[in-house]
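Example 9 (inverse folding). The structure is encoded as follows.
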């Protein structure tokens, strides 16, 4: 095992996942809604905490794992979570209930992100978490950057594509989209971008209040 592999494994295994999130993870695996890793969840929670987030949008609910991590970091935030699968939203709703998250702090929307996001108010949210259909990641991130307030953050997990993004030979549409997203945002004066390689990867994009 290389040093990089050893570090990645240690960082992944060092995270202690709270019991209520671990239970949601088990439900996610039961219904085939692949959850984010504990390492990515912990990083997302820290970002939510540092930004003192009070309003969060999540694109791709799954069984509630990522939403629970975000609310762990932002205990006063209201989470609006969007998923096209009613079954996923039902399981997530139960996960939040079991975690004793007050109903007033969650808003569940059934639908495709591409239909829902254009109707949401721009510059109104602290964090937008993008974890839906990977083939729509560029469009979803574009909407996310519109929805966050100046200084707000868009988070994109799984952005390394299981190692495919780093391999220049891989040129399928999803891999190319992730690769373009990383490259374009790193060169953009409108955002500060950072790429974490822990877990499945997490792209962090914070909008610049005055890019001029």
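The amino acid assigned to each position is listed next.
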């Amino acid at each position: 095992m290389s040093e990089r592999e050893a570090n990645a494994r240690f960082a992944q295994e060092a995270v202690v996942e709270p019991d209520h999130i671990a239970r949601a993870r088990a439900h996610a695996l039961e219904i085939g809604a692949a959850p984010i890793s504990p390492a990515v969840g912990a990083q997302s929670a820290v970002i939510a905490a540092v930004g003192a987030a009070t309003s969060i949008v999540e694109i791709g609910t799954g069984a509630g794992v990522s939403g629970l991590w975000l609310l762990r970091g932002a205990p006063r935030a209201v989470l609006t979570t969007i998923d096209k699968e009613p079954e996923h939203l039902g399981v997530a709703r139960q996960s939040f209930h079991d975690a004793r998250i007050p109903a007033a702090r969650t808003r569940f929307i059934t639908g495709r992100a591409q239909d829902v996001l254009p109707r949401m108010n721009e510059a109104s949210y602290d964090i937008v978490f993008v974890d839906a259909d990977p083939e729509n990641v560029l469009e979803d991130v574009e909407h996310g950057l519109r929805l966050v307030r100046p200084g707000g953050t868009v988070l994109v997990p799984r952005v390394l594509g299981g190692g495919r993004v780093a391999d220049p030979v891989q040129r399928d549409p999803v891999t190319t989209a992730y690769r373009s997203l990383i490259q374009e945002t790193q060169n953009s004066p409108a955002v500060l971008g950072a790429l974490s390689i822990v877990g499945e990867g997490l792209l962090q994009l914070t909008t610049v209040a005055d890019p001029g």
